[in-house]
Write a structure and sequence with these properties.
The structure holds two protein chains of two kinds. Chain A is an alpha+beta fold. Chain A has one domain: Alpha-Beta Plaits (2-Layer Sandwich). Chain A is built from seven helices and ten strands. In chain A, strands 8-1-10-9 form a four-stranded mixed β-sheet. In chain A, strands 2-3 form a two-stranded antiparallel sheet. Chain A has a two-stranded antiparallel sheet with strand order 4-5. Among the domains of chain B are: about 190 residues, 3-Layer(aba) Sandwich (Rossmann fold); about 230 residues, Dimethylsulfoxide Reductase, domain 2 (3-Layer(aba) Sandwich), CATH 3.40.228; about 110 residues, Beta Barrel (Barwin-like endoglucanases). Helices cover about 30% and strands about 15% of the residues of chain B. Chain B has 29 helices and 32 strands. In chain B, the strands form ten sheets. A seven-stranded mixed β-sheet of chain B has the order 5-4-21-20-19-6-7. In chain B, helix 6 links the parallel strand 6 and strand 7. In chain B, helix 5 packs across helix 21 and helix 6 runs parallel beside helix 21. The chains are: A alpha+beta, B alpha/beta. Chain B: It holds the Pfam family Molybdopterin. Chain B: InterPro entries: Asp_de-COase-like_dom_sf (IPR009010), MoPterin_dinucl-bd_dom (IPR006657), Mopterin_OxRdtase (IPR006656), Mopterin_OxRdtase_4Fe-4S_dom (IPR006963), Prok_Mopterin_Oxidored (IPR050612), TAT_signal (IPR006311).
Chain lengths: ~220, ~800
C-alpha cells in the first residue's frame, strides 16, 4: 500500500513562501481581502510561521516553519465528521474532503490540532488564473490541503512516476527553490522520504497526540 | 469564460448531490463521473507550457507558464535553466495576479483635468494608441525643432535588456537627449563600487555559494531581496545540506531579518559601521598572518620585516647585502597592500572597530580567524552597508578587500561575464540636433565633481528639474518607474510631475506617479511581451540568457516598452531622416517588430541550438559556463588595495579637499584611495531625533510592484505573521522609553516629514533604530495597494553616496510618539 508523506528540511527553508503562493495558484485557494484578513478569515492550506525562542536583544533566535495538513495516519478530523465528508483515502493515505457532502459544521476544524482546515466564509469568485484541474468550492464548507491529489492521480493515469526527486510531487514541493521538501511513499524503503528519515534526526508535530502525522521535519 | 467555469462548478455540485441521493449512499470521488466533474471540464482540453522569463528583478529568471485554454494558470521555474536549477523565487508566481489584475490600465488614457495633485481627479478619458502616440510625437517634435531635445527626459524603472538597448539607449540617442535616467541609483550603484575601485569593473558580483565554506554578509539581505533572488535561495538550500561540509553563514545587520534568522550567527551593529567591522577583521587577518599567500603574496624571504605589527609602518622596500633594492612584500595578484597598511590599516585595530560597531573586539577577532581559515569564504556587501551618504562606496570597498585577503576573488567572488548579443541590424545615426543635444550636460550632474563616477544620479534629477538646472525640462516619459513612491524624499517627485508641462507614464497600474501624468500608456506585464536578458551576478558558476516571449495573448490594448520604442522611432522617423535610419530595418531579416528585434539580437544565442530559433523559443534559456579572470581592469591589472581607478577619476576632475568636503568624504590624502571607514552621517540632530530610520525590502516587495497582489499582501511580513501593512519596528527598551506598546499607532517623524504606522515591539531590532519595510504606503496603485501601511521614503532625507550617485536610504534620524 502506498502511504504518501512529506519531509521538510527546516535547515534549508528560507521562509520565502514560494510554497504558499504555489499552493494558492495550484489549488485555486482564495486570497484574503484586507477586511477578511483583519477578521482572520484566511484560507491557508500551506502557510509559513515563525517560532521564536525566548531571548532578549541581541540573543534572538527564530525558526521559520512551513505548516500544512499532516495527512495523519490517525486523523481526528475524520473521526468527528458527522456526515462522512472527510475521509482518509486508502490508496495514498491522503486525508481528503468531499466538498459536496460537507455541511460546514466546523467540527473537524476544532478537532484538528494543527489548525489546517479552513472554512469558506464567502462565495469565492472564479478567476482567470484558477486551475481548471481542481473543483471550485462554495461558501459554507470546509476545505484543506489534498497533497495535490489531482496531480498525483493524473500522474498515475499517465503512468508517470510519483515522488521526489524526479517524479510528480505536490505544487509546494515542486516550487520550493531551496529544495526544502521531499515527497514520496513511506512504505517504499527506497523512496527519498524513507532514505531521509532513516538518515537524519526528525520529528512530527505533536506526535504525542497519537495522530501519526505524515509530515516530518528535519532541523 | 469565467462564467462558464462558474456554471461547471454549480453543475458539479448539483450532479453530485443527485448522484448521492440516488444511490442512497455516498459515491466516492473515485467514481468516473464524479472524478471527471471534480476535475472540471477544462482538464481534458488544450494546454501547454510556454517558456518565458520574469522581469521582477535583474535576475531575469527563466520561467515556464502553464497555459490552459489560452489562460495562464501556473508559473514554475524553467527546467532548462542550469543556474536557477529549474526553480524560481516566490515573486515570479505573482505574475499571474499581476496579469489578470482588474486594476490594470486597459487602454491609453488622457488627463482632462489640468490641475494636478493627490486630491485631484485626473478625469481620465480613454483614447486610442493612435491619438496617444501622435500627441507624444508632436510634443517631441516641438522640442527638437526648437533645438532643445535635451528637455526630454526618459525615466526608466524595471526593464529587460531589449528595452534597455532600444528605448533607453538607442531611442534617446537618435532623438538627441543625454537624459536617459534609470532607477539604478536608488538600487545598487554603491554596491558595485567596491568591485570598481578594486578591480575596475563597475558591476555586480556573483557569489559562488556552492564552493564556499563561509559566508559573511554585511547588510546584504541575501535571502530576501539581494539579486539574484532565485540563485541565492537555491544555492542556500544546497550549501546547507548539499552533501559537502555545511557552509557557515554570518549576518551583520542592525535588524534581525529573515536572512539573519537563517544565519548561524546574527551580529547587530551600530547602523552605518559595517566597514569598521570589515576593516577590524582585515587588521586581524594581516597581524595574525592569515592572508591567502597565493592571491596576496608574501614577505620577501630575505626581508628584515616578516609580518604585520599593529601600529608599525612597513618600509615598501629594503636594501640587500649586495646593495640592491628589493620589495619588502611581493604581491601576487594584488597591488597596494603595504600602502594600505601604512596609511590606514595599521592603526585600525579590532578595538577601534569594536568602539564603532559596539561588537566586542573578541567577536571581531574570532570572525576574522574563522573567515580567513575556512576558505573559500565570501564577504558580501549590500543595501544595508552601502546605501549610506558619503561613505557607501568605501563601505563596499572595505568588504570587497576581505575577499582579496582570503583569496576568494575569482574563486567564489566572481565577475559578471558580458553576454554577446548580435549587432543591431542598422547603425545608430545622429543628425546635428542629436549630436548637439546628447553632448549637453546630463541633468543628473553625473560625472561632475558632485558625483565623480556616477553613471546616473536618479534622485538628483528631481531637484534639478525643480530648479531648472542646467535647463528646464518640458517632456517626461516615465516607464515602469514610480519615483513618487520609490525614492528618498519621494514628495519632491510629485512636485516634478506637477511642474513639467507634459508627462507620459507607461506602466501597468495607475501608480503614485501616474496620477500626475498627462497621458497614461498601458504596459504589457512580463509574461505578455518579447525581450531578452542575462542575469546579474549569479550564485553559481554557470549562468545564461533568458528569452521573454508572450505566454498568452496580451489581455488589453497594451504595448511593451520595446514596442513603444519601435513606434516612437518609426513615427519620429517620418520627420527626421537620421531617426528613420536608426530604426528602419532594426529587426534585420525578421521584421521591425518586437519579435523581429528580439530574434535578430539573439541570433548568436539561438544559432547555438540545432533547432535554431524554434528550439530557443521552446527551451527559453541558454546556459553558459564561467571563465575566471586572470587579470583585472585596473591600471596595475591587479586587485588594488590602493585604488588608482578612483584616484584617476578624482584627478581628472581636479578634486580638491574642498570638493571632498562637499561630497561628504572626511578622509584626506592617500587614505581616500584605500578601504577606510567614514563615520556615518545623518539628517537631523540626535537631541531632537534620537533614533535612526532603517528600511528594508521584504521578499514579496518586488520593488514596490507587488502591492496590489493579494498573494503578496497577505503574507507580507513572515517574521511577524503580518500582512497588508508594514510596521514601525522598535526594540522593547526603546518602546518603554517612549511609552509605546506593541500594536500602538505611532508617528515616526524626521526633519522631512511624519508618517503614521503601527508599532511592532521586537527584540531583534537595535535599540537606536526604527526599522520599516519598504514598498507599502502607496497612495495610488490599485484598490488593494492603496493606503496600506506607510511609505518610509516620504520621511527619508535626500543625500547621496556621491562617488556613485547612489541615494542614501539610512541617513535619517527620527523621533517617535504615540499617535
Amino acid at each position: 500500500m502506498v502511504r504518501y508523506a512529506m519531509v521538510i528540511d527546516l535547515d534549508k527553508c528560507v521562509g520565502c513562501q514560494a510554497c504558499v503562493i504555489a499552493c494558492k495558484a495550484e489549488n485555486s485557494v482564495a486570497s484574503s481581502t484586507p477586511d477578511e484578513y483583519a477578521k482572520k478569515r484566511l484560507t491557508r492550506w500551506n502557510r509559513v510561521i515563525t517560532v521564536y525562542k525566548e531571548g532578549k536583544y541581541p540573543n534572538v533566535s527564530a525558526s521559520i516553519m512551513p505548516i500544512l495538513c499532516n495527512h495523519c495516519e490517525n486523523p481526528p478530523c475524520v473521526k468527528v465528521c458527522p456526515v462522512g465528508a472527510t475521509y482518509k483515502r486508502e490508496d495514498g493515505g491522503m486525508v481528503l474532503q468531499r466538498y459536496e457532502r460537507c455541511i460546514g459544521c466546523k467540527y473537524c476544524m476544532i478537532a484538528c490540532p494543527y489548525g489546517q482546515r479552513f472554512f469558506n466564509f464567502t462565495e469565492q469568485p472564479e478567476l482567470e488564473y484558477h486551475n481548471p484541474d481542481v473543483p471550485g468550492r462554495d461558501a459554507g464548507i470546509v476545505e484543506k490541503c489534498t497533497f495535490c491529489v489531482h496531480r498525483l492521480d493524473k500522474a498515475i493515469a499517465e503512468g508517470k512516476k510519483i515522488g521526489s526527486p524526479d517524479g510528480v510531487v505536490p505544487a509546494c514541493t515542486e516550487a520550493c527553490p531551496a529544495g526544502t521538501r521531499t515527497f514520496g511513499d513511506l512504505d517504499d524503503p527506497d523512496s527519498e522520504v524513507s532514505k531521509l528519515l532513516a538518515s537524519r534526526r526528525n520529528y512530527q508535530l505533536r506526535a504525542d497526540l497519537g495522530t501519526e502525522p505524515h509530515i516530518y521535519y528535519l532541523d | 469564460m469565467a462564467f462558464e467555469l462558474k456554471m461547471n462548478r454549480r453543475g458539479f455540485l448539483k450532479v453530485a448531490g443527485i448522484a448521492g441521493a440516488a444511490s442512497l449512499g455516498y459515491l466516492s470521488l473515485d467514481q468516473p463521473v464524479i472524478k471527471a466533474l471534480a476535475q472540471g471540464t477544462y482538464a481534458a482540453s488544450e494546454e501547454k507550457w510556454v517558456a518565458t522569463g520574469c522581469v521582477g528583478c535583474v535576475g531575469w529568471c527563466p520561467l515556464q507558464v502553464r497555459v490552459a485554454n489560452g489562460r495562464a494558470v501556473k508559473i514554475r521555474g524553467n527546467q532548462n535553466s542550469v543556474w536557477t536549477r529549474g526553480k524560481v523565487c516566490p515573486r515570479a508566481h505573482l505574475n499571474l495576479q499581476m496579469l489578470y489584475d482588474p486594476d490594470r490600465i486597459k487602454t491609453p488614457l488622457k488627463r482632462t483635468n489640468p490641475n494636478k495633485g493627490r486630491d485631484q481627479d485626473p478625469g481620465w478619458e480613454a483614447i486610442t494608441w493612435e491619438e496617444a502616440l501622435s500627441t507624444i510625437t508632436l510634443k517631441l517634435r516641438e522640442l527638437r525643432d526648437k533645438g532643445t531635445p535635451e528637455r526630454f527626459v526618459s525615466l526608466r524603472g524595471r526593464y529587460d535588456s531589449a528595452s534597455a538597448d532600444l528605448l533607453y539607449s538607442r531611442f534617446t540617442k537618435a532623438y538627441g537627449t543625454p537624459n536617459s535616467v534609470s532607477h539604478s541609483a536608488i538600487c545598487a550603484e554603491s554596491t558595485k563600487a567596491g568591485r570598481w575601485m578594486s578591480m575596475g569593473d563597475y558591476d555586480y558580483s556573483g557569489y559562488d555559494w556552492y564552493n564556499a565554506n563561509y559566508i559573511i554578509s554585511f547588510g546584504a539581505p541575501l535571502l530576501e531581496a539581494h539579486r539574484p533572488v532565485t540563485g541565492n535561495i537555491v544555492a542556500f538550500g544546497e550549501v546547507r545540506r548539499g552533501g559537502k561540509a555545511r557552509a557557515n553563514f554570518v549576518m551583520v545587520d542592525p535588524r534581525y531579518s529573515v536572512t539573519a534568522s537563517k544565519a548561524d550567527e546574527w551580529i547587530p551593529v551600530n547602523p552605518g559601521t559595517d566597514a569598521a567591522f570589515a576593516l577590524g577583521m582585515a587588521h586581524v587577518i594581516l597581524t595574525e598572518g592569515l592572508w591567502d599567500r597565493s592571491f596576496v603574496g608574501d614577505f620577501n624571504e630575505n626581508s628584515p620585516v616578516k609580518g604585520f605589527e599593529t601600529g608599525k609602518a612597513i618600509s615598501e622596500d629594503y636594501t640587500t647585502e649586495a646593495g640592491e633594492k628589493e620589495e619588502t612584500f611581493k604581491e601576487a595578484s594584488t597591488y597596494g597592500l603595504i600602502k594600505w597598511w601604512n596609511v590606514y590599516l595599521k592603526d585600525f585595530t579590532p578595538e577601534i572597530a569594536a568602539q564603532k560597531t559596539t561588537v566586542p573586539a573578541e567577536t571581531i577577532k574570532r570572525l576574522a580567524r574563522e573567515f580567513a581559515k575556512a576558505k573559500p569564504s565570501i564577504a558580501a556587501s549590500g543595501r544595508g552597508s552601502d546605501a549610506w551618504p558619503g561613505s557607501g562606496s568605501f563601505n563596499s570597498y572595505a568588504v570587497m578587500s576581505l575577499n582579496a585577503l582570503s583569496g576568494s576573488i575569482e574563486k567564489v567572488v566572481n565577475h559578471r561575464p558580458s553576454v554577446k548579443y548580435s549587432e543591431e541590424a542598422v547603425k545608430l545615426e545622429q543628425d546635428e540636433v542629436a549630436e548637439e543635444g546628447t553632448k549637453k550636460q546630463k541633468i543628473d550632474e553625473s560625472k561632475t565633481k558632485k558625483f565623480p563616477f556616477a553613471s546616473v544620479v536618479t534622485n538628483n534629477v528631481a531637484d534639478n528639474i525643480l530648479r531648472d538646472y542646467p535647463y528646464p525640462v518640458e517632456v517626461i516619459l516615465a516607464w515602469w518607474s514610480n519615483f513618487a513612491h520609490s525614492t528618498p524624499g519621494s514628495k519632491r517627485w510629485e512636485d516634478v510631475f506637477k511642474k513639467v508641462p507634459f508627462v507620459v507614464h507607461h506602466t501597468t497600474h495607475i501608480s503614485d506617479t501616474s496620477i500626475y501624468a498627462d497621458i497614461l500608456l498601458p504596459a504589457k506585464t512580463y509574461i505578455e511581451k518579447w525581450g531578452y536578458g542575462h542575469p546579474a551576478g549569479t550564485a553559481g558558476l554557470s549562468r545564461g540568457t533568458t528569452l521573454f516571449q508572450p505566454a498568452v495573448a496580451p489581455l488589453y490594448d497594451c504595448k511593451s516598452e520595446l514596442e513603444l520604442g519601435l513606434e516612437l522611432g518609426k513615427r519620429l522617423g517620418e520627420y527626421y531622416p537620421s531617426i528613420n535610419k536608426s530604426f528602419e530595418g532594426i529587426g534585420g531579416n525578421y521584421g521591425d517588430t518586437a519579435e523581429g528585434y528580439v530574434r535578430a539580437r539573439t541570433e548568436e544565442q539561438w544559432n547555438a541550438f540545432p533547432g535554431g530559433w524554434d528550439e530557443f523559443r521552446q527551451k527559453g534559456a541558454t546556459n553558459h559556463s564561467y571563465k575566471p579572470k586572470t587579470e583585472f581592469s585596473t591600471p596595475s591589472k591587479k586587485f588594488e588595495f590602493y585604488s588608482s581607478t578612483l584616484k584617476a577619476t578624482f584627478e581628472k576632475l581636479n578634486m580638491t579637499d574642498e570638493d571632498l568636503d562637499k561630497i561628504q568624504i572626511k578622509a584626506r590624502g592617500d587614505v581616500v584611495y584605500v578601504p577606510h571607514f567614514e563615520n556615518p552621517i545623518f539628517i537631523g540632530d540626535k537631541g531632537t531625533y534620537p533614533l535612526s530610520l532603517i528600511t528594508y525590502k521584504p521578499m514579496l516587495n518586488q520593488e514596490g510592484r507587488s502591492h496590489n497582489s493579494q498573494w503578496a499582501q497577505e503574507i507580507y511580513l513572515p517574521l511577524y505573521d503580518t500582512g497588508w501593512t508594514n510596521l514601525a519596528e522598535i526594540n522593547p527598551e526603546t518602546a518603554e522609553k517612549f511609552g509605546i506598546k506593541d500594536g500602538d499607532t505611532i508617528y515616526v517623524e524626521s526633519e522631512v516629514g511624519k508618517i503614521r504606522a503601527r508599532a511592532k515591539v521586537f527584540h531583534g531590532i537595535h535599540p537606536e533604530v526604527v526599522s520599516m519595510a519598504y514598498g507599502q504606503g502607496h497612495f495610488s496603485y490599485g484598490k488593494f495597494a492603496k493606503n496600506r501601511g506607510a511609505n518610509p521614503n516620504a520621511i527619508t532625507g535626500v543625500m547621496y553616496d556621491h562617488i556613485t550617485g547612489m541615494a542614501a536610504f539610512f541617513n535619517t534620524r527620527v523621533k517617535i510618539e504615540k499617535a
